[in-house]
Amino acid sequence: MEYTILGRTGLKVSGCGGPSRLGLRDNVAAEAGAVSLVRQAIDLGINFLDTAQSYGTEPVVGKAIAGLPREHLIISTKKTLPPVDHSNPAEQVIKGLEQSLKSIGTDYIDIYHLHGVEPKDYVFAKERLMPAMRRLRDQGKIRFIGVTEGFATDTSHQMLQESLREDLWDVVMVGFNLLNPSARRTVFPLTAAKKVGVLDMFAVRRALSQSDRLRSLCGELMQKGVLPRGAVNADDPLGFLLKEGLAATIPEAAYRFCRHEPAVNVVLTGTGNPEHLKANIEAILMPPLPAPALERLERLFGALDSLTAN
Ligand SMILES: NC(=O)c1ccc[n+]([C@@H]2O[C@H](COP(=O)([O-])OP(=O)(O)OC[C@H]3O[C@@H](n4cnc5c(N)ncnc54)[C@H](OP(=O)(O)O)[C@@H]3O)[C@@H](O)[C@H]2O)c1
Hints:
Blueprint: E1 3-5, E2 12-14, E3 16-17, H1 31-43, E4 48-50, H2 58-65, E5 74-80, H3 89-104, E6 109-117, H4 122-138, E7 142-149, H5 158-163, E8 171-175, H6 183-186, H7 188-194, E9 197-201, H8 211-224, H9 239-243, H10 250-259, E10 266-268, H11 274-284, H12 291-301
Helix pairs in contact: 1-2, 3-4, 10-11
The structure holds NADP nicotinamide-adenine-dinucleotide phosphate.
NADP nicotinamide-adenine-dinucleotide phosphate (NAP) binds at residues 18, 20, 23, 50, 52, 115-116, 148, 150-151, 173, 201-205, 209, 251, 268-273, 276, 279-280.
């Protein structure tokens, strides 16, 4: 495993992290399988585990890390935003943290995020929730404050662009992948300026792991004129990567693309499949994609900021 420093937190983290839903959402893995998947990740050198109250995976992480030296692990979890009209939203943040500590079986969280903050929620998060986050940090219950963007709708990173001009976060979780590398232009200069740690989500998702999804997305882009007709083979849009020997699989290409983005500290992998976990770690440890692959991807998708890869 290779380790990087997570911005100003100074934390030494594995270059890849995750997993997220651990297969539980699709019932692919029963809880015991999910626990063993997290154990497998730790055995392979992953020290960064990302979960969230809303995923229902905190108890799995708790079981997987039971008995392990806590100081060797970096635990990241997230608080879903309370409704903006809640009478005491700060109290909800504090209660959420207490529940997460209990579910994971730990007495501190390394990085506690406000989860999926959309542009419309930003002022609420800043004014009504951040005081509670700071209090938790002062009490030592969380070490660093993070935020994750609502990338599914905020594909051009409006919330992060606005909030990073202030100085709220130690760590951000940002959507960045070869189909939407817009964070390179709009977010990473801001994180670099403030030494904010960067966690990369959506490296693969459905479009870069399911060929039918990629076909339909590229079809839509060509119909809208965003991708020139004929720019890619409509039946196999990223087939050139494999045919020209530039990568062995599309997920491999996708993780390598993200891993070697200089601003990215941790590429999260959200797999629930032990074989995928192994392959993804191998991909993340591989060298950058060859220059012809990067140049062609830049020509095709470099200017896009509308996709998630969902
Ligand atoms: N707004 C937010 O806060 C937010 C939103 C989404 C995600 N996240 C975070 O992002 C992190 C990463 O999650 P993600 O969903 O973005 O991860 P991802 O790695 O981009 O995508 C995961 C999907 O790709 C598939 N996949 C992974 N490796 C594969 C392989 N080698 N071959 C084929 N399919 C493969 C997985 O299916 P298999 O299970 O079959 O491998 C799963 O469906 C998580 O820690 C999560 O917390 C945060």
